[in-house]
Specification:
Layout: H1 2-22, H2 25-42, H3 46-54, H4 60-65, H5 67-73, H6 84-101, H7 103-130, H8 147-156, H9 165-183, H10 187-200, H11 203-206
Length: 232
């Protein structure tokens, strides 16, 4: 009897997990791609890995030669090879955003944050190189990963959270990404903060989605309603 109960609970848990994954196909397909590429990296020598990633990096040199290719390719690799933490991050942020916005709008936020933050941060680095504030070697620096898209999606979720919690969440985001920029700024830190601002700027994409209200007088005093998705 106890064994049947455990099996039943396990089946319910599996069905619940599958239902969650099924409603965020884009996030979990992307996560699966990252798993494959991470496994591939673990089979490369350190020297080959660095050169391999550099050719798929959104550094100044590669952006000037193959902008579209590297902007896409750089989002398919994780520098450092630790995949498991991204399972949590994708489930908490990407999956929630996709379930709320739908795949197309979620992907638009990801693309905007990844592409625009990359161009902004690399543009700032190019200016620093020209002004002698950064070494010439910085034009071929390694710059791959999914953190810009993640920061942008985390920011757009501000509009998903009801008051007053959204203000605390927003402050936490700004502190998390702003403190490193003030302490010891790098072009990556600058890109992360830019990603957050881009995500916040994606409000037109989320306006009217379930979990939000219209202006005051059409459903509430603060423009929000309980965060319950209409997508099934």
């Amino acid at each position: 009897m106890k064994r049947r109960t455990r099996v039943s609970r396990l089946r319910r848990a599996v069905r619940a997990v599958w239902a969650y994954v099924r409603r965020a196909p884009g996030a979990y397909v992307w996560l699966a791609v990252l798993f494959v590429t991470t496994v591939a990296l673990h089979h490369m020598s350190p020297e080959f890995e660095q050169e391999f990633l550099r050719q798929r990096s959104t550094n100044i040199h590669e952006l000037s030669r193959h902008p579209v290719r590297v902007l896409v390719a750089s989002a398919m690799w994780i520098d450092g090879g630790h995949w498991v933490p991204y399972v949590v991050l994708y489930s908490v942020f990407h999956a929630q955003a996709e379930r709320w916005l739908g795949t197309a709008r979620w992907l638009a936020v990801c693309a905007a944050a990844h592409v625009l933050a990359t161009l902004i941060s690399e543009g700032a680095l190019a200016v620093a190189v020209e002004d002698g504030l950064a070494p010439r070697s910085a034009v071929t620096t390694l710059d791959v990963g999914v953190s810009y898209a993640l920061a942008g999606v985390a920011a757009v979720l501000v509009y998903r959270i009801g008051s007053p919690w959204r203000y605390g969440y927003l402050v936490a985001l700004l502190v998390f990404y702003g403190v490193p920029l003030m302490a010891a700024p790098t072009f990556t830190d600058f890109g992360h903060l830019a990603s957050v601002l881009i995500g916040l700027g994606c409000y037109p994409l989320v306006r009217g989605r379930a979990g939000m209200r219209g202006p005051k007088g059409r459903g509430g005093s603060d423009g929000w309603r309980p965060a319950v998705s209409s997508r099934r």
